[in-house]
UniProtKB/TrEMBL annotation:
Protein name per the record: Ig-like domain-containing protein
Entry coiled-coil feature ranges: none
Keywords assigned: Membrane, Transmembrane, Transmembrane helix
Keyword Phosphoprotein carried by entry: no
InterPro entries: Ig-like_dom_sf, Ig-like_fold
Highest taxon in the source lineage: Eukaryota
Transmembrane annotation, as ranges: 171-194
Length: 228
């Protein structure tokens, strides 16, 4: 008798046993095939071990649009059967990426293992070169899974360009105002220095005498009384 007729079935000649939707818990078992006729008897047994298939547990959108100076999470994660070592490889437009390339810009790996596509501080030429189709492959000795997605580099939004232009315009006004103020200060300093070094035709008699501890007004008064 078949253990589960809904999932177990024989081929028409009873030489093949088919199991649909195999389950690791219920279908992992030993199976024996017995063959006999009037001339004799033989059998063959085997062990069926059902493995958990690779399942993609995290992935980005199928199409990802990114602007300059942005970063998006492009991590692809998967789980598989604990019995088997699973490897992960990446490719870009059909060309396999080495682990070293995934450590350099525009890629950035976080401590938690997530992978980011980081467009900050990169030119549009470099970003466009790294746009296109990406493929992440997971494989074991018995299973293989692939996830594909596309990265499209977009131009900066119109509002961003407008803000940048307005910011540059305001900066020019500040530079011009600072330049004019600096010129006024320099001219004022030149005028003051020139007056100090070239006082004109009038000799600063009183200031000179006072600097030498003399009192020209008092001396003039004294001399006037003596003459009278």
């Amino acid at each position: 008798n078949l253990p589960d007729p809904a999932r177990y079935s024989f081929s028409s000649d009873h030489t093949e046993l088919h199991i649909t939707q195999p389950n690791k818990t219920t279908d992992t078992a030993s199976f024996q095939c017995n063959v006999s006729n009037s001339e004799g008897y033989t059998f063959y047994d085997g062990y069926l071990k059902v493995l958990e298939s690779i399942k993609i547990t995290k992935h980005p959108e199928s199409v990802n649009q990114i602007y300059r100076n942005e970063a998006i999470d492009i991590s692809v994660q998967a789980t598989g059967d604990s019995c088997c070592t699973m490897s992960q490889t990446w490719s870009h437009n059909g060309v396999r990426l080495s682990p070293a390339e995934l450590e350099r810009m525009p890629f950035r790996k976080e401590e938690n293992g997530s992978l980011w596509f980081d467009s900050r501080n990169l030119s549009y030429d470099i970003l466009n070169a790294w746009s296109g189709r990406y493929q992440c492959n997971f494989s074991t000795a018995y299973d293989f899974r692939t996830f594909e997605f596309t990265i499209v580099v977009k131009d900066a939004p119109a509002t961003e360009s407008l803000v940048a232009a307005e910011g540059g315009f305001e900066l020019w006004w500040v530079i011009i105002a600072c330049g004019v103020l600096l010129m006024v200060i320099v001219i004022a300093i030149i005028v003051v220095v020139a007056k100090r070094h070239y006082p004109g035709e009038t000799y600063p008699l009183e200031k000179t005498e006072i600097r030498h501890h003399l009192n020209p007004k008092k001396e003039l008064l004294n001399n006037s009384f003596q003459q009278i």
